Amino acid sequence: MFHYLNQFVLLIVPLIFAVTFHEVAHGYVAWKMGDNTARLAGRLTLNPLRHVDFFGSFILPLILKLSGAPFIFGYAKPVPVNFANLRDLKKGTLYVSSAGVFANIVCAAVSGILFQALLFFMPLWSGSFFSPVLDDLFHMLGFSVIINVVLGVFNMIPIPPLDGSRILAVFLPPAIRPYYARMERYGMLIILFLLVFGKNLLFNVVDLFIAPMLWLFLGSEGLAYILR
Questions:
Q1: Which position among 15, 20, 23, 167 bears the catalytic label?
Q2: Which string of DSSP letters, residue by residue, matches 31-58?
């Protein structure tokens, strides 16, 4: 029981920070592009308490873990952005929408560097007095890479309200955009359905996009170590 609880904590901590960086990136880029809504709302902070959503940051990952979903996913409270305030609507929408994904990839890269450093020096610390702490940190960094890569790739799927939908909407004909935007009311249901029941489709996404990035950031030895 303690083992599973420890594993869940090692997953939840990097997940909370991943969704926090994701949302702050949206708000920060929006501020730089002319909209200070997120700043006025006090959301340009790395304090996770300002961003976590009880269902999206805790309950959903637990459901996915227990249901055997191919990967763990979660979300935070969306940072408020008034796209009408952006100085350049098209460019601003593209920058703001892709900022969260970019932040997650940067987090994955940094976590990967630290993970591979610990892996390289593992013969020195394994079995030492600091081994329990460093082993948890090692796994947390590995999970951080996986979670940030999954968040980055998953958010590019063009299903409202995911970031990919706003990027796609910029390039859609104006007459189609209102109909596409109406999908947002069903978006989370579609996403949950895919996460729980669309495993074959998600495994194809994993093979095509996620797996190569995990191999890049974790290395073949590190990836095998984390997934065993």
A1: 23
A2: HHTT--HHHHTT-SS--GGGTB-HIIII
User: In sequence order, which ranges of the chain are alpha helices (DSSP H)?
Assistant: 2-32, 37-40, 54, 60-67, 89-120, 122-125, 131-154, 163-171, 177-181, 184-197, 199-205, 211-227
Respond yes or no: is residue 23 known to be catalytic: yes
Q: Quote the pTM value.
A: 0.89
The sign of the CA dihedral 146, 149, 151, 153 is: negative
Dihedral over alpha carbons 84, 157, 26, 108 (to 10 degrees): -170
In this prediction, residue 214 has a pLDDT band, given cuts at 50, 70 and 90, of very high
Q: Write out pLDDT tens, residues 161-190.
A: 899 999 999 999 989 988 898 888 888 788
Cβ–Cβ < 8 Å for 129, 102: no
Q: What's residue 194's pLDDT? A: 76
Q: What is the pLDDT of residue 4?
A: 63
What residues does 76 pair with on adjacent strands? Answer: 52
Exposure of 58 in the CB half-sphere (CA atoms within 13 A)? 7
pLDDT confidence of 69, banded at 50, 70, 90? low
Please state, in angstroms and rounded to a whole number, the distance separating the CA atoms of residues 68 and 184: 26
**DSSP character at residue 158:** S
Compute CA distances 105 → 43, 61, 100, 123, 173, whole Å.
21, 20, 9, 29, 30
